[in-house]
Every structure is written in C-alpha cells, then in structure tokens.
Design goal:
With 395 residues, the chain is α/β, with parallel strands linked by helices. The protein has two domains: 312 residues, Aldolase class I (TIM Barrel), CATH 3.20.20.70; 53 residues, no CATH class. The protein has a ten-stranded mixed sheet with strand order 10-9-6-5-4-3-2-1-11-12. The chain has a two-stranded antiparallel ribbon with strand order 7-8. The chain is globular, with a radius of gyration of 21 Å. Bound molecules: iron/sulfur cluster (SF4) (2 copies). The site of one iron/sulfur cluster (SF4) has 11 residues, from helix 12.
Length: 395
C-alpha cells in the first residue's frame, strides 16, 4: 500500500504523484480524450452548483491543502489544456517553493516563444506533448483540424529553450501503422524520450472505442516498428567482451499491456509498466471540480468526497479508502489463476469501467475484445440504442 503510513505520528503519508486537472477547458477536442466532460466543455462538472465554469484559484487552494497533508513527490499539471489556465504559473510557483517535482501534459498548441521562455525559467521535469501522425492529415484526424502546425511550433519553441520534451504517441487503430514514421518525426524535432500510450477508452473517448481501440495485431505492428526504429538509431559501442548498445532513445509504453495479449519480451528496448493503483507509485487525479480519483481515467470520487477543500475531509484518512486499499485485491474472474495477476491486475480497470460497466469485474477491453463472444453483440445492441456507445468485436 501507500508508503509512509506507519512512519511516526508527525510524518505525512507519502504520495508518489497527483495529476492536477487545472481547467476543464481545452483548445482541442481529441477523439481519444479521457476527460469525461470533453463533450460539453466542462458544463456537466458543475451542473446544479452555484460555481463558475472556470473557477479561479481553487486548484491552487486545493494543492496547498494536499501539500499540507501529504508528502507528495511530484505533480503532473494537466487538464483540459493547462496552458489555458490562469492558475498555471501560481501553481508552478507554489510547487517550486515547496520543492515538489513538476511535469506537465500539454497539446503544445498554445505555446509560443514568450510562453516557452517563461516555462523555461521553472525546473520542469518535462512537458509531454502528443503527435498522432507524421503528417498533418493523420494527426488532425485525431485532434481536429488546424492544430498540427501549432503543436509543432510549440514543440520547437520548447526544445529551442532547453525545456525537456517527452514526445507522446497515442497508439490507436488509425495510426498503429504510422508509429515508425511518427518516431522519425520526433527524432527530427530533437525529442528522444517517447511515451507510447496505447489508446484506452475512457471518458469522452469511450464513445470512440470502435474507431480507435487497437487490436492485438495493431499493437504488435506498432511495437515492432518501434523496436526496428530503436535498433536503427542505437549506437553499438564495442567493449572488451561484447558490443554494448547505448540507449540514445527511451521509449516507454505508458498504458499497461496485459501479458496474456502481448508477449512484451519480444520488444526488449521498450519499457513496459503496469497499473499503479494501490501501489506506492499511484498517481491520483484531482479534478477541476475538486474530486480526488484513483487516476485521470477513473470517474468515481474516492470516498464519495465532492471536494477535497471541504473542511470536514480528512485527507490522511482518505488514503485508506477501500477504493484504494482493495483495488488490487479484487480481480476479474477471467484473471483468477493467471500468473501475472498480482502485477497486471486485469489491465486498465478504468477502461473496463467505462466500456464494460465495472472496473474490477472485467479485464481491460483491449483483452476482452478478443475473448467475449457476446461482447460484440452486446455493444452492437447498445450502439442501436445510442450511436455514440459502440465497440466492435475484433477477431
Ligand atoms: S491478469 Fe488478466 S488481463 Fe492481466 S495478463 Fe492475466 S489474464 Fe490477462
Ligand atoms: S486504471 Fe490503471 S492502467 Fe488504467 S489509466 Fe488508471 S492507472 Fe492507468
């Protein structure tokens, strides 16, 4: 469980990371966006509440409260688009003052020379920006028209000022065959740390699962192209006994890939991870509405707490909530007896919740699409009821 819980009366519990969703607003409308409010631009978050759509100052106050209660290693600033938030720089100041690590996820489209210069004055670990196609048409098929050039401009402005950029590729059914070319584009842009994030349907993106969820073959194609790319650009340094490959590039697959679907050992130079919920590496999500969730893709507030600013919320006790403590003890029936169960835990539970209705009853939809014969029929029925909810069975 979370580290530091028994480390003495005065010690704050250690928390690895909090992803702060700075604003519900975004200048793009990506088909793979996991924000549940993307369809309505954030209005649904505050329905029935006497609160403005973009309340000023609240994430700053909430972060102060979390930092007072927890020993947080680092914070990920995200959104919506964090560069559109007036709280971005006050929050960066706060985190720098408290000596907390900070990184950011942005679409890059709002970053011009002036903003890049200002960002370069902070100790940001990195800014992660996504390119989903090596050409304009494929990238914009994922994020909407008119964004490709602005994103490239933002990346170049950051790289030119020495701000570390992590290049992200959301691997979907539409771009899996283009991943090698996207990596080449990142190389041309001077970006050497890459996050391959295989598409996982959640939030707004759950309604695009049929079009975007990669099949097993799609992912194998994407990983093979990545391994070929890494082989071609690695330097082989001869030593006394052997050739040692120096890693000039780092590629991590940031969404878990259940090993029952893909033998990841085939791709030795790609780093693979597992779902961190319920471990010391968990990254909680703090929504623009003040709810704390298990991760950015999960929808339920931990402990049913509506806002972490509420004075009666015990933030230390909240870390012991069943949604966190019991997450890994519950396993989909399909996974019982699997050798990988303790690490994989069924893959992405958030996607299972959004697409299949329960985070712990079913394994990841990426696996389930190849297993459940009735899955396609059920989703076809749902599609007949609601054209936005659909997921096809891929064999
Ligand atoms: S735990 Fe479940 S999803 Fe993960 S590898 Fe095992 S069977 Fe597959
Ligand atoms: S449920 Fe786990 S794997 Fe899925 S997005 Fe959240 S942290 Fe990642």
């Amino acid at each position: 469980m979370l580290d530091g819980m028994q480390s003495g009366e005065a010690a704050k519990p250690k928390v690895s990371s909090v992803a702060v969703e700075l604003t519900a607003y975004c200048n793009q409308k990506c088909s793979y966006c996991y924000n549940e409010w993307r369809e309505d631009g954030g209005r649904s978050l505050f329905e029935g509440e006497a609160r403005p759509l973009h309340p000023g100052g609240l994430q700053l106050e909430r972060m102060r409260r979390l930092l007072d209660a927890w020993d947080i290693d680092h914070v990920t600033l995200t959104g919506g688009e964090p560069c559109a938030s007036r709280e971005l720089f006050p929050l960066l100041d706060l985190l720098q003052e408290r000596d907390v690590g900070v990184q950011m996820i942005s679409n890059g489209g709002l970053i011009d020379a002036a903003l890049a210069t200002r960002l370069a004055s902070y100790r940001l670990r990195f800014i992660q920006i996504t390119l989903n196609g090596s050409e304009r048409a494929l990238h914009e098929a994922h994020v909407g028209e008119g964004h490709f050039d602005a994103t490239l401009r933002g990346i170049r402005a950051l790289v030119a000022r020495g701000v570390p950029v992590v290049g992200c590729v959301v691997v979907t059914r539409q771009n899996a065959g283009n991943v090698g070319e996207i990596l080449e584009l990142w190389e041309q842009l001077g970006v050497r740390h890459i996050a391959l994030s295989r598409f996982s349907p959640a939030g707004y993106a759950a309604s695009h699962a049929a079009a975007l969820l990669p099949s097993r073959k799609d992912l194998l194609d994407a990983f093979t192209a990545t391994q070929v790319f890494l082989n071609s650009c690695s330097e082989h340094i001869p030593t006394a006994n052997q050739q040692v490959r120096s890693r000039s590039y780092q590629v991590s697959c940031t969404m878990p890939v259940p090993p029952c679907a893909v033998e990841v050992e085939q791709f030795p130079d790609i780093r693979f991870g597992t779902c961190p919920i319920g471990t010391g590496a968990q990254e909680f999500a703090l929504g623009p509405d003040g709810k704390l969730r298990n991760c950015t893709l999960h929808r339920q507030a931990i402990g049913a707490v509506r806002d972490v600013l509420a004075p009666d919320v015990d933030l230390v006790a909240l870390l012991q909530a069943p949604e966190i403590r019991e997450y890994r003890t519950q396993l989909p029936e399909f996974c019982v007896g699997c050798l990988h169960a303790s690490s994989c835990a069924g893959g992405c539970g958030a996607a299972a919740e959004w697409v299949l209705g329960h985070a712990r009853r079913y394994p990841d939809p990426f696996v389930w699409q190849h297993i459940d014969d009735e899955f396609g029929t059920r989703l076809a029925e749902e599609r007949a009821r609601d054209a936005k909810k659909r997921l096809e069975l891929i064999l």
